[in-house]
Amino acid sequence: MINEKKEINRARALYYGLFSELFAFVLKDERYIKTLDLIELLSKNPLDENSKTAFKNMKNIIDSKGFKFLEDEYDALFYDLSSDPVPTTASFYNEDRDDGKKRLLMVNYLLQSKYRKDDKKFTDLEDDIGFIFSLMQKLIEDEVKEDEKSAFLEKEIFKNVLNEFVDEFIENVYMHENSVFYQEAVILLKIFIEFERVFLDIQKPKQKIKTNRKKEVLISDTEAKRRLENKRKKSEEVVECSLEAGGDVEDEV
């Protein structure tokens, strides 16, 4: 039973690694190299028939259109202010603004872990979905090594942060007019999140009552400026999304 749980956790870490590759803000040229390897590896034992199809479609798109297509689609989905970009922070989904309570909560979880955000390499906020996926991968890898604190933090992050906004995020990406490859990716993400809820014994949150937001105010001014700054940096330097091991909890994030 213990060995079976470890194998499940290893697979979970790989899934979070894949979603980190796909949704974290990464500027290096080889950003998608691991993506294809992970798709091919995970597609050998898909969670269900729908995920099997999603894996197949994702691979076909990469094979036929190349990684540049994925980069351009990513920018259109999350950074192009003219095409209704999808919000990516938990705070925005919780409070309709970035840099809110969920970011503070994620900073607190990060300080309890042995990891710190490398601000020179990772420019997005701590409650950005890409960063959350990256941290979850690291924590699960540590759980495999029988780190009980990491196992605790991983479940708390899923329950109190990711679980509360990931469904709306998935819907926004799926329905976006520019979503092709990422439409398949969020189908896979939705199936995986459903598995996570069963595995972690965490209920899906009640659906929020949606309000009609104008497209031009879908993301905040602060978020818009940050995304434009990230786009500017993309043309000036090569950076990567990363976590670095930290020391005591007093270390600065």
CATH superfamily: TorD-like
Number of helices in the DSSP assignment: 10
Q: What is the average of the pLDDT values?
A: 86
Named at the architecture level, the CATH assignment is: Orthogonal Bundle
Can you tell me the CATH class? Mainly Alpha
Name its key features.
253 residues; mainly alpha; TorD-like; two-stranded antiparallel ribbon; 2 strands; 2% strand; disordered C terminus
Could you walk me through the main structural features you see in this protein, from its secondary elements to its overall organization?
The chain has 253 residues and is an all-alpha fold. The protein has one domain (2-245): TorD-like. It is 62% helix and 2% strand. Strands 1-2 form a two-stranded antiparallel ribbon. The N and C termini lie far apart (37 Å). The relative contact order is 0.17. Mean pLDDT is 86; it is low at 213-217, 235-241 and 247-253.
Outline the secondary-structure elements.
Layout: H1 2-23, H2 33-42, H3 49-65, H4 67-78, H5 90-95, H6 101-112, E1 115-117, H7 129-144, H8 148-175, H9 181-200, H10 221-234, E2 243-245
Antiparallel strand pairs: 1-2
Task: Give a summary of the structure in a few sentences.
It contains 10 helices and 2 strands. The chain has 253 residues and is mainly alpha-helical. The protein has one domain: TorD-like, CATH 1.10.3480.
